[in-house]
């Protein structure tokens, strides 16, 4: 891995503006999932360093929150620009530790940077309210203030964007942050911290702790200083963190698992739907929480859709994401590969047909697959797959497919393709999801509210709503 700016390869924790080893000297290897070789050994911290980072964030808070929004925005804007200027290095780090193809990694860097830019702009527009008084001598106002010290815990599948869409609004709102990145992808997080330092974000405002997840999580959730936790990851861990946060009644943002339906009605543009399915399903080798997980195809177009999708999937180039032209990289680890393979075997043992791909390849790779004749009894229908398998379910009418699509505890992203305008509204309103892609397989951007309902989480990230999660409103009642 040859970075243009070698300073971006940081292997120490970033606490209070200092680059630090773990107190006990512990380190953890970061593994390239494509080559299964270690890339770097990163300081692996625990409870003690977490307490220090919380104290640093608390100490930095008064000066940071008393800056004007414009001053904070200028620093964030500088951070944004440095991320853009170092896109190639950040993408290379991301591909090396997370496995996604370089082209996708570059896309993620731009997406990640956009949250910093957007919230730098939003910082200046945190308007309050003046409320007509309830008595002649009363004047009532609402002001909005940053909630205080925030904690963030992020996953490996978007090593940059899941960080910036928390740190962007938090810092813009005048909060400080302690972040624990995923153990698989700490290098991208530490490179972002390096750029924050270079941008002039003051010591203690943004701290990064690669380390022991459970231990760090316990200290962050138990701390009365930490007023908010923002987590992106699995529903099981989200529930655990919510329980742990109950004792100090923290504000929570939780972006958890999904089980996205992708419905193609008989009036859809089939080629557009195939295109959308390719984008939604195979991005990051199927390892995103908004990837199409269950594809419901109307009976009358099922065979045509299946064969068009299969012929596109057969052409996907699999390999090390650092190589030019690769479209599908490895899965993050062997456990992930085994889970996807187990789902595939369960499906075929219950009557599904693999029409393309599916075979495990060397290391952590597998061939992207399309399965037909998939039914609700198969685990593919119930569990998030997080891998490059498209299971095609058959349906005959609208009511039936809405019921099947909603038959899950999850409610993050959903997609459907149709042209009848009444149907578009009916289905969009009936889907129990936080997000609905209509005739598109790509819905994520910084200006729109990302988030789920049901067991997919709490809160929204991005958009004008995203910063609200980092603000408290304060009501002022003034007697004159
Ligand atoms: P994934 O399947 O994406 O790895 P996880 O929910 O296990 O999903 O991980 C998401 C993030 O949560 C990672 O940073 C991981 O280290 C962290 N994590 C996992 N378990 C815990 C826990 N018990 N307490 C705090 N953080 C945790």
TrEMBL record:
Biological-process GO terms, alphabetical: gamma-aminobutyric acid catabolic process
SUPFAM superfamilies reported in the protein's UniProt record: ALDH-like
UniProt similarity note: Belongs to the aldehyde dehydrogenase family.
InterPro entries, per database record: Ald_DH/histidinol_DH, Ald_DH_C, Ald_DH_CS_CYS, Ald_DH_CS_GLU, Ald_DH_N, Aldehyde_DH_dom, Aldehyde_DH_Superfamily, Succ_semiAld_DH
NCBIfam families assigned: PRK11241.1, SSADH
Domain Aldehyde dehydrogenase span(s) in chain numbering: 19-475
GO cellular component, one term: cytosol
EC assignment: 1.2.1.16
Identification of the protein by name: Succinate-semialdehyde dehydrogenase
């Amino acid at each position: 891995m040859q970075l243009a700016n070698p300073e971006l390869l940081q292997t120490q924790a970033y606490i209070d503006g200092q680059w630090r080893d773990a107190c006990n000297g512990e380190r953890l290897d970061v593994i390239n999932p494509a080559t299964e070789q270690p890339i770097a050994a990163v300081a692996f911290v625990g409870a003690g360093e977490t307490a220090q980072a919380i104290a640093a964030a608390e100490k930095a808070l008064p000066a940071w929150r008393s800056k004007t929004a414009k001053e904070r925005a200028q620093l964030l804007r500088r951070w944004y620009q440095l991320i853009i200027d170092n896109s190639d290095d950040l993408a290379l780090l991301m591909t090396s530790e997370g496995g996604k193809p370089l082209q996708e990694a570059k896309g993620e860097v731009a997406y990640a940077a956009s949250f910093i830019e957007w919230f730098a702009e939003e910082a200046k527009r945190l308007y309050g309210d003046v409320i007509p008084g309830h008595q002649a001598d009363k004047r009532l106002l609402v002001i909005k203030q940053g909630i205080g010290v925030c904690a963030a815990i992020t996953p490996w599948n978007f090593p940059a964007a899941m960080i910036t869409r928390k740190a962007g609004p938090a810092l813009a709102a005048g909060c400080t942050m302690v972040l624990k990145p995923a153990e698989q992808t700490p290098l991208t997080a530490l490179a972002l911290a390096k750029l924050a330092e270079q941008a002039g974000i003051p010591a203690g405002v943004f701290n990064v702790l690669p380390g022991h997840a459970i231990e760090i999580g316990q200290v962050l959730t138990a701390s009365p200083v930490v007023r908010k936790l923002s987590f992106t990851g699995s529903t099981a861990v989200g529930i655990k963190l919510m329980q742990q946060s109950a004792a100090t009644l923290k504000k929570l943002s939780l972006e958890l698992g999904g089980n996205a339906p992708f419905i193609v009605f008989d009036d859809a543009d089939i080629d557009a739907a195939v295109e959308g399915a390719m984008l939604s399903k195979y991005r990051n080798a199927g390892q995103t929480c908004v990837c199409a997980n269950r594809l419901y195809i109307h009976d009358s177009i099922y065979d045509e859709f299946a064969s068009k999708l299969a012929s596109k999937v057969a052409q996907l180039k699999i390999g090390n994401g650092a190589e030019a032209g690769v479209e599908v990289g490895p899965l993050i680890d062997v456990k992930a590969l085994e889970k996807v393979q187990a789902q595939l075997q369960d499906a075929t043992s219950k009557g599904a047909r693999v029409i393309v791909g599916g075979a495990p390849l060397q290391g952590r790779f597998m061939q992207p697959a399309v399965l037909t004749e998939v039914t609700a009894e198969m685990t593919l229908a119930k569990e998030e797959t997080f891998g490059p398998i498209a299971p095609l379910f058959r349906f005959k009418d609208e009511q039936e497919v809405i019921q099947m699509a909603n038959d899950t505890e999850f409610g993050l992203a959903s997609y459907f393709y149709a042209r009848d305008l009444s149907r578009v509204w009916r289905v969009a309103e009936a889907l129990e999801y936080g997000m609905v892609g209509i005739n598109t397989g790509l819905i994520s951007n910084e200006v729109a509210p990302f988030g789920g309902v049901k067991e997919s989480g709490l809160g929204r990230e991005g958009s004008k709503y995203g910063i609200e999660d980092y603000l408290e409103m304060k009501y002022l009642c003034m007697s004159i």
